[in-house]
Design brief:
Three copies of one chain form a homotrimer. Helix content of chain A is 35%, strand content 22%. Chain A has 14 helices and 19 strands. An eight-stranded mixed β-sheet of chain A has the order 1-10-12-11-13-16-14-15, sandwiched between helices. Chain A has a four-stranded antiparallel β-sheet with strand order 5-4-9-6. Chain A is elongated and about 95 Å long. The two termini of chain A are 27 Å apart.
């Protein structure tokens, strides 16, 4: 009897999935994504090659979604600050974080003091280029390290941003994997940040690997709704189209983000807590990881805010590695491919896949007999009664004590202090002897 | 954004109210109060000058009130023990604690041993004159320091008490301040102890200052019932006349007692706990004071016993400084004007007023949008998205997460871990943008 | 006012009951009991002499009981292993643990290696003879110390077991003591182990002493169902006959086991916890013992498994000394009369009797007055009010605060932080003054 299901155990040692995920992140890293534009489309096209069932949707600029409006589409071709000799001293081609996201076009000569108003840097992290965006107010600007900024000499500078802000579309990807039941499990990840690794690419690559595993699993009980969206505006647009259907069908969901470092594991609760998603996440994290960081919804900040918002109230939480905002490289050029690793990504993959496996197995069981059944004649109890014979059958007896038709597998496993998948395996042995049965 | 409401903050630095309250206590200190008699009337007359709306009621001796009967009225004019030379060695005129409260008249010569049966002192506090009363069994007696008692030489002593115990009235004061709503908040304090400062005068003077503040506040939402009564018999008599009306109307109430020292703050829970009074008291104490002493109703002892008694069950708790019975000077001549201070009184005033302000603001709010509203275009969220922009709007977002029509301001503030008045101010900013609305 | 009821207090110093119980255990120790057979009948006959009302029932072999079947009856007359010279080197007559319980008859010569397959010993406890049984698969075997086993030289051995396994009966004893009410309290103990002291005889002797005390108590409020059964199969057979009636009538029950050592006290919760049996057990253990070991139902192992099993769900828990399976001598020859003592048995007797006394007194009380009654004129409160007068009447006032018709005596005592029997005595003083009354 293993603590982990054999499948899951295999996964943990199957390094290839980690190496694949890391390779996908490496491929996608250079693309300059934003909440709209060609970078998002290029990213979605990459995932569609991995997941042929992925459907890419387009929502026109100006479309209303609850309190929001889809913004114009942003295209960025080039951006730089040059000195009087024409040397590019801040260059979008070197790192796409150098330009403020959604910058309007500009072609101006400025002196050093005037230029400074358009510069963004981090005095406390003098070697990091910050990630700055201005989606809903027209601006332009450049980001650079504070060290570089402070070294800029007086003089004249040429600021050039070759961009468009025009009516276009907002794109997102959607993959529906039907199961035997119409009840759904949601996986949601975002694809709207430029070259950032943990707080961007780790999410989509782990989601893609999970989607591929689910695609190959032909005995899916539940239907899976897997979406790749721009953060916030994307989930709001998506919910404005699907929230009634999702509310009726969704039994659990997970936002997949910050899934690639090796520092820790984290759990961020749903708004109300205690949903099926929370319960399975806490069970699997406790059993597989043991020690992890726990955050209340007061620390929320990604698409779970929309999925859990009052009136929407989907059962969605987050299982991740180090939480967004809680590591120093967050939203800077330091959140690069060195921050994530195949092992880090595999850790997230294993825990979320563990959650999905428990959900698939999550049923209510009830006993078929009054009083303990005679396990001995069924080969489930030592026929020789010694001081330890009870201990050997303890797990079966405890399951029989609490498989009383009132609790699902997760609650039963918590009650008898066992791993849910081990508990499921023992329930199936008891079911083979007709000592327990599923409650429909 | 301040942690405390501007009004409250001003109060904390407005030393004048503390000095006024202390002056009132100084004025009232010499009066010999008891549960009936001229001392009570003189005290009530003093407060009527401060609070012209105060109505003084009279209930005849012999009136039944639940299990009790209003006792005869006690008038004390003089009392002393003199030695054979006529020297007053224990003298009511020096301290009114020297006579046992409700002593019947006496004029007798006794020898030292016989006299001792009528003396009360505290061996463990040899310099304190105890406060002793015998309301319901006819007695007479004198209280003195144990040091003085032990020094009394053999000889003959003349014990004289010039008092009356005759049918009369029990008095109490009542101030009703109407609000926009008929629902009421109760403030109850007692006026029945002789020259005692913390466990007597601190209560009525803080109550009077609160009553004056409420009188000046013309936008009162709730009606305020403010009563000055003799302890126990007074609340029983008052409830016997008003309990049905109070049960229908009272949403929260506070017994105001032991409000003047600077040693600590204390909370004594209502009988069942968890009432609106308890909730606001715990919120305000936690936010304004931080560390305070907490007592269960098993430690009750003042009029909250009657307000909370089974079948009455008003939502009443106590917010005070050092609890009655929990400081060494309690019920002795050491509980004098040196034990209380303007700052001590102001502390109680601020905390109870803070409770009333939160109650006035205590409403249920609900959102008007599905998903997060776009705060940016309303000037409530940074238009430039940086790694810290979310933190700046965190409080508004958290309020939007939990202002879902299911919890009042106090519960909302507790849920989002904020001060209720700060939370209220932010809700009003959101309401101005029509992003939240009050639930009727 | 004592913390313990006078009766109970007397019991604690009444050593005779402990000496009697120990004597009964001594008398019964040599009998070779099993789940059926003459040893059980001899044991029941002994208790019938102590408790003339005890009825001995017989259930034929082959009778179905839920998932089980009553096994054949086992009779053991002699058993030994002799060496080639005819010396008995393992001898049932020296200790009845030497033969595996339910051994089929055998009369064979075996060499040392072959013999070893039929031997049972404990390498970790080389001087202990283990207790081994094979009720439901036909086997034979011998138990011996590991030291003896390892010292057995090569050679031929003669294994002889003179036993029967034939259709017969399963016996149990039942004593019903009617009370004023038909509602019942269950005491269940087992009588199926051979010469074992704590994990066998301590249970029936304490149960017999409690049954005798209950028999002598002619004012029994509840009916008592007291049963002496073989473990597991006995409770399953008994429940198969009586579970509907017991479910309708039983308000609390206790399995009496491991009741004789002096090491600790233990509590094992019912399956769901929080039943009346759990509540009274926790109250009495906390008040009388203070510190005790607490086990969840996940550690269950005796007849409470059947009484609490889903669909049966009787309110049954265990109050015992050191729990079965949690002391090194458990199920070995070291669990002998030196492990138990008159004091150890008396401790169990006192605690369980304390539980029964609280249950008998467990009623719901309500007040008769609104507001506090005037205790002074009833002699229940000092007529002289001093700083300590409130403290003296504190217990009465607290009882009056919470005797509000909503909680039984146990809950009231817990709420006011008092011993239930002291609380009951004070309630009866208040009832004599017509200040509280029982709620029917």
């Amino acid at each position: 009897m293993h603590t982990h299901s054999p499948e899951l155990h295999k996964a943990q040692n199957r390094r290839p999935v980690g190496i694949e995920m890391y390779q996908w992140a490496t491929d996608l890293f250079p693309i300059c994504r934003s909440i709209t534009g060609p970078g998002v489309r290029e990213t979605l096209a990459y995932f569609k090659r991995l997941l042929p069932g992925l459907v890419v949707h387009s929502v026109p600029s100006g479309t209303r979604a609850f309190d929001w409006t889809v913004p114009p589409e942003w295209t960025i071709r080039d951006a730089y600050i040059a000195d009087e000799d024409g040397n590019r001293i801040v260059d979008f081609r070197k790192h796409n974080l150098h330009v403020v996201g959604y910058s309007e076009p500009v072609d101006r000569w400025l002196d050093r003091a005037e230029l400074d108003q358009y510069l963004h840097s981090l005095p406390n992290q003098p070697d990091a280029v910050p990630n700055v965006m201005s989606y809903y107010v027209r601006r332009w600007g450049f980001c650079l390290t504070d060290r570089q900024r402070r070294a800029l000499p007086p003089g004249r500078y040429h600021a050039v941003i070759d961009s468009d802000l025009k009516p276009g579309v907002l794109n997102y990807g959607e993959l529906i994997l039907p199961g035997r039941e119409t009840r759904e499990i949601l996986l949601s990840t975002y694809i709207c940040h430029p070259s950032l690794a943990n707080n961007e690419l780790s999410g989509p690559v782990v989601t893609a690997a999970l989607a591929r595993w689910l695609t190959e699993r032909h005995d899916r009980r539940f239907t899976y709704r897997i979406i790749f969206i721009p953060e916030t505006i994307g989930s709001i647009v998506y919910l404005s189209r699907h929230h009634e259907e999702m509310k009726a069908k969704t039994i659990a969901g997970f936002v997949v983000t910050c899934a690639g470092d090796e520092r820790t594991y984290s759990y961020l609760a749903s708004r109300q807590g205690g949903t099926l998603a929370d319960r399975v996440a806490l069970h699997v994290l406790s059993r597989k990881v043991g020690k992890f960081d726990s955050y209340s919804f007061l620390e929320s900040g990604s698409d779970e805010r929309q999925y859990c918002s009052p009136g929407i109230d989907l059962p969605v939480c987050i299982v991740m590695r180090t939480k967004f905002g809680c590591y120093p490289e967050y939203h800077t050029s330091l959140d690069d491919l060195s921050l994530i690793s195949p092992d880090g990504l595999t850790g997230s993959y294993d825990v979320i896949r563990g959650c999905l496996e428990v959900l698939e197995a999550n049923r209510v069981w009830d006993r078929t007999t009054l009083c303990d059944p005679q396990l001995g004649r069924r080969g489930l109890y030592p026929t020789l009664t010694t001081r330890d014979s009870g201990l050997q059958a303890r797990k079966l007896l405890n399951i029989l004590s609490y498989a009383d038709g009132t609790r699902d597998l997760i609650a039963l496993a918590e009650r008898v202090d066992m791993d849910a998948m081990e508990c499921d395996a023992l329930l199936r042995r008891l079911a083979a002897e007709e000592l327990v049965q599923q409650v429909s």
